[in-house]
Amino acid sequence: MARVRYVRKLKELRQNVIKMGNATLKSVEEGLEALEASDAALAERVIKNDDVIDKCDRKIESQCMMLLALEQPMAKDLRVIATSLKMITDLERIGDFTVDIAEEIVSMGKPIRTPVPLSKFNELVSEVKSMVADSIETYAQGNIEMARTFESRDDKIDSLYKEIVSDMVGTFVEGQCSTESVADIASFLYITRYLERIADHAVNIGNRVCYMEEGERNYLK
Amino acid sequence: MDDNVEISVKNLSLWFGKFQALKNISIAIPKNEVTALIGPSGCGKSTFIKTLDRMNDLVDNVRITGEVIYKGRNILDDDTDVVQLRKEIGMVFQKPNPFPKSIYDNVAYGPRVHGIKDRKALNDIVEGSLRKAALWDEVSDRLNESALRLSGGQQQRLCIARLLAVEPNVLLMDEPASALDPIATSKIEDLLYELKREYTIIIVTHNMQQAARVATHTAFFLLGELIEYASTIDLFERPRDKRTEDYVTGKFG
Question: Do B250 and A3 touch (CB under 8 A)?
Answer without folding.
Answer: yes
